[in-house]
Specification:
This protein is an alpha/beta fold and 218 residues long. The chain has helices at residues 24-38, 61-64, 69-87, 104-110, 128-131, 137-146, 151-158, 164-169, 179-192, 198-208, 210-216; strands spanning 3-7, 10-14, 45-49, 54-56, 92-97, 100-102, 114-118, 124-125, 161-162, 175-177.
């Protein structure tokens, strides 16, 4: 269950207290949170985080294993649309990566404007090749847009894991800090940019990421 609280102009969404896997219920709740923040009056920004060991461990494999090929494609399209809505959100978004950010969980983090990651524990990884679920065209485009070359290709084909400091060195995340500083720094960063004009910011993002959004929303 995703919990949402407001601290000044910053909304903080805690994705959950377990692995925070992405299934239809997660998509529905996360999309509802984006809609709620979007219609909130006045300055606003969004920080997302997890608890304990996980930011998000990606797609719910228990759910995915129940799907046939057509239903899997349909579910991945729904995930694509959620990521697209986050990517183009007309407010600043910051992922406070408190722990493991794996597969679709890593894609969720990449869809934010900024990423602050715990330096001493937790991995960022895109193990599609190991899980056996290929990235969609939209997801592939997102990785290529958000992860600098040549590391985008390397992470996508290897499935290798990055710790927080390495992810920061490779510019996959913006900051790597001690555990106790992850959420406060994310909130500070979000607060700093919460007064951006929503119409202008939304237009800037749609134009900046038009190729990714086009692949995610064919």
């Amino acid at each position: 269950m995703i919990e949402l609280e407001q601290q000044g102009s910053v909304f903080v969404a805690t994705l959950g207290r377990g692995e925070n896997v992405i299934d239809p219920a997660f998509v529905e709740q996360f999309t509802a949170i984006l809609a709620a923040v979007e219609v909130s009056p006045g300055p606003r920004a969004l920080v997302t985080t997890g608890a304990d060991r996980f930011y998000s461990n990606g797609l719910s494999l228990a759910y995915v294993e129940t799907l046939g090929a057509d239903d899997l494609d349909a579910f991945l399209s729904i995930v694509d649309r959620m990521l697209a809505r986050l990517l183009a959100a007309p407010f600043i978004t910051v992922a406070a990566i408190n722990g493991h950010s794996i597969a679709a969980g890593a894609l969720l983090a990449l869809s934010h404007d900024y990423r602050v990651m715990r330096a001493d524990r937790g991995f960022f990884s895109l193990p599609s090749v190991d899980v056996g679920i290929p990235f969609t065209r939209g997801m592939t485009s997102l990785i290529a847009r958000k992860v600098p070359a040549p590391w985008a290709d390397d992470l996508a084909v290897s499935g290798d894991r990055l710790g927080g400091r390495e992810a920061c060195d490779l510019h996959v995340v913006h900051r790597a800090v001690p555990d106790e500083a992850v959420v406060p720094l994310a909130i500070e960063l979000a607060e700093r940019h919460a007064s951006k004009d929503p119409a202008t910011l939304g237009t800037v993002k749609r134009r900046l990421y038009h190729d990714v959004l086009g692949a995610m929303q064919p």
